[in-house]
Amino acid sequence: MKKRFYITTPIYYPSAKLHIGHAYCTVLSDILARYNRMIGKEVYFLTGSDEHGQKIAENAAKAGKTPQQFADDIVKTFKDLWEKLEITNDQFIRTTDPKHVAAVQKIFSKLLEQGDIYLGSYEGWYCTPCESFWTSTQVGEEKLCPDCGRSVHLASEESYFFKTDKYVDGLLKKYEEIPNFITPVARKNEMINTFIKPGLSDLAVSRTSIDWGISVKENERHVVYVWVDALINYISALGYLSEDDKLFHKFWQSDDVEIVQILGADITRFHTIYWPMILKALGLRQADRYFVHGLLMMKDGKMSKSKGNVIDPLPLIEKYGVDAVRYYLAREIVFGSDGQFTPEQFVERFNVDLVNDFGNLLNRTVTMIEKYCESVIPFYKGQITPFDREIEELALDVVKEYKANFDDLKVTEAIISAFKLISASNKYIDNTKPWELNAQGKKEELDAAMNHLANNLYISAILLQPVLVNAPQELFKQLGVPIELQDFKLLNKYGVLGGQKVSKGDPLFPRLKVNEEVEHIKNLMK
Ligand code: MSP
Fold it and tell me: How far is the CA of 504 from the centre of ligand 1 (A)?
């Protein structure tokens, strides 16, 4: 196991209000960052904003602001949202940060000097919203952008180009040698079949038609293409080519670090084709994994203002709590697949998983320990009944399965693993019938049942900590779990809890009235 973990999200365009689809990527990355910290790794988690390019300049002009003012205002709202979602990023990089600008210029100069970049001229179909040039084959007869489906226009300009032919074979070899370099694997195949096999053109890496960007030092009429500018954030944030490059050596250029880059399916091409080529040209190591998550859609397709189906995460957090939103995103949409946001599913997940299964288990357990054991969790005395043996085995398996899933970035599956123990514990109550054990005076069995329930809740709470930021703490409070026991490393042995005093608190999650809340969320979408 590598001792360090560097995780990045794409950096967001400050062009529109962030919707729940944007929050999705950042929340999932945060969950991975928290998990890796929990298992004892030194983690560096980066997110930020991608502020240059034509689109931002146009939107700023419409708003009557300078691009910088416009970006400053929107970036404030990003930071506020990440705070409300309790995102634990170590740095928020902005592509207008002077250290980023300097790194981009130095990288450009280096690649130019090495002959990886040359001056030529470009003619192609340009998609302004995606800031991408396409060939006529790619845009087809309808002249639509293959990424976003919007209309493209013919554009021509003098441009610097990055030579791809020198790096393409090496890239394909990398794809082959490291099977999980890009996952899900279908995304890798898509890159090979759609872009690489038909023949990769050189990438236009500068523009003369816009000026809101980082200027090319050698030729000030040009600004660096916004995608190249943006990708560099992953290393400029760490101080690459700056005086203080300690972070870069620690979290990028080191064998002790696992580098995981998270991105949405719509931006796979830049991250998994051109970015590895740029890194290779710079003589730097490659990331270990590119994890491509799916897109969060609405019933009527992509979220868009004109369809009136955009859901803003803030009112959801305010009404249902940050845990509910984080849980929904991580559990409902399988990490790696496309998913759909529906108010019905949001309310159902909340009521079924969080209220009935998890919250209720805590409530029942604390009530029974208060009633049968004078509020003190009985000490662990081994497996008294076959039910005890069965549930202990399951608990240990769940911890292993959970870890294997998380280590393989399977966030949804890891949560499902944790919930196996929660549902098995609810069944354990039905099987052991503590109220009968109490009535029959079977003290030893009753104590064992209470101990096992408390321990299972404790394990589940630790496992859910990367996802739920409040409920596990409340559970620890109610079960009297001291801070030194809130440690994932203790879970390799069963029976940690015993002797703690419990105290009943509010339910972890209040039950939602289905129709009322579905209606409420639908109104938020209008
Ligand atoms: N600025 C570029 C990324 C540059 S990274 C060097 C960009 N920005 S974005 O704001 O348009 O998107 C940021 C991230 O949000 C992307 O990973 C994108 O896939 C993701 N999402 C945008 N809409 C989304 C959904 N509806 N669902 C899930 N993720 C979504 O692209």
Answer: 43
